[in-house]
Design goal:
Blueprint (H helix, E strand, L loop, with lengths): L8 H4 L10 E3 L4 E3 L1 E5 L7 H21 L5 E2 L1 E6 L10 E3 L9 E3 L11 E3 L10 E4 L1 H5 L1 H9 L2 H14 L16 E4 L2 E4 L7 E5 L6 E4 L3 E2 L4 E5 L37 H5 L5 H6 L19 E7 L6 E7 L9 H16 L5 E7 L3 E9 L2 H12 L9 H12 L10 E6 L9 H11 L2 E7 L7 H8 L3 E4 L6 H14 L9 E10 L2 E8 L3 E11 L5 E6 L10 E4 L6 E6 L6 E9 L4 E11 L7 E7 L3 E2 L6 E8 L2 E4 L2 E7 L7 E6 L14 E5 L7 E11 L4 E3 L17 E2 L2 H8 L15 E4 L3 H4 L6 E3 L3 E12 L17 E8 L2 E9 L12 E7 L2 H6 L5 E2 L5 E3 L10 E7 L2 H9 L4 E9 L12 E4 L21 E2 L5 H14 L4 E3 L5 E2 L1 E3 L3
Helix pairs in contact: 2-5, 8-9, 8-13, 10-11
Length: about 1000
């Protein structure tokens, strides 16, 4: 949709429509329609409601000050579950708002305990999924929470910045090799923080000096203690730890100097931009009025509560214009919709039906689904006839009226809008959109054919809905249509009540085929096999249980005479294991779709689930075509599974294109091992709509890990990091230097161990082995408007370039570089060339890659500069060119910075990678070097000239035998450091 088509006052106030209903009032910067939802499993506690309000009031002031008077929280809705006692002050709603809420109150994630966190799968400046906060955090807001976590308002603003503005943490974690909590730079150990002035001490939990391993990697068992200097306090950054008193601002490039060298996630993902630079350029901060006074910062609260007598509320708005007669569209719609209301919708769900062409008509008023109403609804659908123009605005207005019948609120309710044509009658979508936003209605759109309205994706985006698309030529069109209906309704159900799709396949049947159905141990309730066939009368269906016996207790049901739909119900609980479904046709060929769903046997079980979503619904560049699939088991992430996205393109006869998704922290994937698998789609086939269905397979190698990783959550294992404002007392025990810890800690405070940290302190992902399983999920569709030429898509940049080792031999300085290869086009295919450069001036190197000295083939000691296939790990050993070493000697520089870029066969480059830094005290004199006995050299330890001969003997023993040694680092010792700058 072109921006001009929605140039309405209310719509102009919107920002980041991916967040759904959240709006910003441009007159004063107040956020409106922020939704806080409480999970049904949370024990009723009035303190939770009271403290949500107290938290937002305090956080609103904190946010207002932190953004220099620009924005604040103005309008917050608290959604109370139906499992809580009825609240007189709460407005009734028929829908479950939890899955669409901005902040979700639920039981702890084992990864973080009661620490708030944000699920943030997208990149820099992109909106997150939600903020998670626990009941214990809220109920103990003014007691244990403040004592344990610091300022609760700080915590909420920290998470809001993750969620709304797409910034990342400016601290590291012990044991995170890419984002460590401590790192080496300029001869010291520093804290991974925005400000280099952040003071700290470091020791083990027993008070002993921390170990430092080869490459200057600080031990994962090293605990840092941070503190403020009351004489020169640090104000930033909010994206650092909330435990530091006095921090109230985001890190900036000017007054609150942003440390571009720190290996933080913010620097890595946002290309070293400060958090304030990202935030202030966010769409929320554009076109705002003058900052308002703090006295005007007021928060208004509204409570809503789901009724006990309804599972959810949906209106189906169905197109019956004349074009629906083409390609048997109306016939297919009637087939899918009839089966949906007859056999799929659960009892007590409120459903209304609106049909539209030149005008809109109510075919079925809002009615609770039961055995009687199902028949009436099916008859109403069966009597539909197509004729007339297309008035989508009419359908939307009429649907809202149906949702509000009887004085009901429409907040959180869903409209399923299905259309095959361009709107050509008033009112148009743009005219009705303000009403949809005011009523807080979600619109899921279903585009049928190639001529469906271009603005459907934007409509879904603006209202927090999902877009789906269908092609007239796809074989499983009725099954895909019903899948969209199911996806649009089940999101309103509690998670425990949602069926899980364990098989969804379309097959070309020649005579007979046996299809395995895998039912894992936690499933088996209400297991249904739905078969869609061109002719059920010609189809024979046979079911065998995992023991090989015919399922005599299974029921077989054909919806009605001439129906394409057959449902097989397996008695509950279904035996776990592999069932076999055999289909035999009497016809020559038949295209059959098989969809199998099941539910958890026990209500408190958490079976493995798959959720698929997209980065953008309107795609204008390849970077926007990103697919995500979250594989989880309750609060736990599922890792090492195989996830495939099947993409149906708008081009006929192409078939489905397969894209594998990864959870490795490179390419499109922001965070490794968080259970969210990601990849770019680059195989474009012209303009139009691309529909996405994902499949995950656990073949025995998948594991279930404790919790799931997000952004912002700083796990508190035993107690939070210690914080002190008593600088004098701390410095007295730590060092006589008044600047101790301000610019980093000297090496004499650490113990050097000549061993690789990966060997000494291996980090292993430990989890429970997952059973074999399969899951399917409909990700909806995205629309490409504006041809994307695949040949003009460059490779993705290298994101994890690092110095794996440094080597000295005969006066030559060498480094081992390691990285994950991108593809020819983003993270797909194989690129053609890798260009590596080195520099001693990071400032100029950051601005201009070409300022670095290129590494030639003659500089390669081991490995190659030709890239390997995408996502392959590549290592190359290179010597630093002599002219670079000479320049370093002349300028007395000790740091060597490396960066790389990748080129494809079309000559397109990826842009510069992250910078990897190899640091030396100074380039060692050539006469001090001696050939080493092994290629497994190790780190150079320089020594004073007076003991050169003794040092050579020691080095020969240490490096030749590769014996682990432990020694106290002395101030005069020359420790070779490797800093993995991101």
């Amino acid at each position: 949709m072109k921006a001009a088509t929605l140039s309405l006052p209310l719509v102009a106030a919107l920002c980041f429509p991916l967040i759904g209903g959240v709006r910003i009032d441009t007159t004063d910067g107040g956020y409106r329609d922020v939704v806080v939802a409480i999970h049904p499993s949370v024990t009723p506690d009035e303190n939770i409601i009271v403290n949500i309000k107290a938290l937002f009031r305090e956080a609103s002031l904190f946010l207002h000050r932190a953004t220099r008077g620009r924005v604040f929280f103005k309008d917050v809705t608290i959604a109370v579950p139906s499992t809580w006692p009825r609240r007189e002050e709460a407005e009734n709603t028929a829908s479950n708002l939890f899955d669409g809420a901005d902040l979700r109150v639920a039981e702890p994630n084992p990864e973080y305990g009661d620490t708030p966190y944000t699920l943030q799968p997208r990149g820099c400046g992109e909106v997150g999924e939600y903020i998670h906060i626990t009941p214990a955090f809220l109920s103990g807001l003014n007691g244990t929470t403040s004592k344990t976590y610091g300022s609760p308002a700080f915590q909420l603003v920290h998470e809001w910045a993750h969620y709304r503005y797409g910034v990342f943490d400016e601290y590291g974690a012990a044991g995170d090799y890419r984002y460590p909590s401590l790192y080496c730079e300029f001869g010291k150990v520093r804290a991974n923080a925005c400000s280099v002035r952040m003071r700290f001490t470091a020791s083990t939990k027993n008070g002993e000096p921390c170990r430092v391993y080869r490459g200057c990697k600080v031990s994962t068992k090293c605990n840092a203690k941070f503190y403020q200097n009351t004489r020169d306090p640090v104000e930033s950054s909010i994206m650092f730890m909330p435990y530091i008193p006095g921090v109230s601002q985001f890190c900036d490039d000017s007054k609150r100097k942003h440390n571009i060298f720190a290996p933080s996630k913010q620097n890595h993902i946002c290309q070293r931009r400060s958090t304030w630079d990202v935030i202030s350029n966010n769409a929320d901060f554009q076109n705002l009025g003058d900052p308002v006074a703090e006295t005007q910062v007021q928060v208004k609260f509204q409570e809503v509560q789901q009724r006990n007598d309804s599972l959810g509320k949906v209106v189906m708005a169905l197109d019956i214009s004349g074009s629906m007669n083409d390609y048997e569209r109306l016939v297919r719609l009637k087939s899918a919709a009839t089966h949906f209301v007859r056999d799929v919708l659960p009892n007590d769900f409120l459903l209304g039906i609106v049909v539209f062409s030149s005008t809109a008509t109510v075919t079925q008023r809002l009615t609770a689904v039961n055995d009687t109403s199902r028949t009436d609804m099916a008859k109403a659908i069966d009597h539909l006839a197509a004729d007339g123009d297309t008035c989508i605005g009419c359908a939307l207005k009429q649907s809202v009226q149906v949702l509000k019948e009887g004085g009901r609120t429409a907040e959180g309710d869903t409209i399923i809008l299905m259309t095959d044509g361009n709107e050509n009658k008033d009112p148009r979508i743009a005219a009705v959109l303000p009403e949809l936003l005011t009523e807080k209605v979600v619109v899921n759109t279903l585009a049928l054919g190639t001529s469906a309205e271009k603005n459907l994706e934007n409509l879904a985006l603006m209202t927090g809905g999902k877009a789906f698309s269908l092609s007239d030529s796809q074989a499983n069109i009725e099954a895909a249509m019903q899948s969209a209906f199911v996806e649009s309704t089940t999101t309103q159900l509690d998670e425990a009540d949602r069926p899980i799709t364990i098989l969804d396949e379309s097959i070309k049947l020649n005579k007979s085929k046996t299809i395995p159905i895998m039912i894992d141990p936690e499933l088996g309730k209400d297991t249904k096999v739905v078969i869609v066939s061109g002719s059920q009368t010609n189809l024979e269906v046979h079911v065998l249980d995992p023991m090989g016996n015919t399922c005599k207790a299974c029921s077989f049901h054909i919806s009605n005479s001439g129906s394409k739909w057959r449902t097989v119900k397996i008695p509950s609980p279904a035996m776990p294991g592999t069932w076999n479904l055999t289909l035999t046709t009497k016809a020559d060929t038949d295209v059959v779709n098989v969809r199998v769903t099941s539910m958890a046997v026990a209500a408190d079980d958490h079976p493995i689930r798959l959720r698929t979503f997209l980065k953008k619904l309107d795609v204008n560049q390849a970077l926007d075509a990103c697919i995500f699939s979250e594989v989880s088991k309750g609060p736990h992430a599922v890792l090492r599974a195989k996830v495939l996205a099947k993409v149906l393109t708008p081009q006929k006869n192409v078939g489905q294109l397969i894209v594998e998704l990864f959870d490795d922290g490179v390419g499109a994937d922001v965070t490794a091992n968080d259970g969210i698998y990601s990849a770019y789609f680059t195989q474009f086939k012209g303009n139009g709509r691309y529909s996405v269905v994902a499949e995950v397979v656990g073949d025995g190698s998948a594991i279930i890990v404790r919790g799931r990783r997000g952004s912002g959550g700083l796990p508190v294992v035993a107690s939070p990091p210690e914080v002190s404002t008593n600088v004098a007392a701390t410095e007295k025990t730590a060092s006589a230097s008044p600047e101790f810890g301000a610019e980093g800690l000297p090496f004499e405070q650490f113990v050097y161990v000549d061993e690789d940290i990966e060997v000494a302190e291996p980090l292993e992902v430990v989890g429970e082995k997952a059973p074999s399983f399969r899951r399917f999920s409909d990700g909806g569709s995205f629309q490409v408007d504006g041809a994307i030429d695949v040949s003009k898509i460059p490779p993705a940049s290298i994101q994890d370039l690092r110095v794996a080792d440094v080597i000295t031999e005969n006066g030559t300085l060498c480094v081992v570089l390691s990285w994950t290869c991108p593809g020819e086009h983003l993270d797909y295919g194989q690129a053609s060339q890798v260009e590596i450069r080195v520099s001693t001036n990071m400032a100029s190197f950051l601005k201009r890659f070409e300022d670095g000295v290129p590494i030639s083939e003659n500089d390669v000691m081991e490995g190659q500069l030709s890239p390997l296939p995408a996502r392959t790990k590549q290592n190359v050993t290179i010597k630093i060119p002599e002219d670079v070493v000479s320049e370093a000697k002349i300028e007395n520089r000790t740091d060597f910075y490396f960066s790389a870029r990748v080129l494809n066969k079309d000559g397109l480059d990826s842009g510069a990678s992250n910078i990897a830094l190899a640091t030396f005290e100074h380039p060692p004199p050539e006469q001090q070097q001696k050939p080493l006995a092994s290629k497994n050299w190790g780190l150079l330890i320089g020594v004073p000239v007076a003991i050169i001969l003794l040092a050579i003997v020691i080095l020969t023993v240490v490096f030749g035998r590769r014996r682990t040694s432990t020694q106290k680092i002395q101030p005069e010792a020359k420790l070779h450091r490797i800093h993995y700058a991101s």
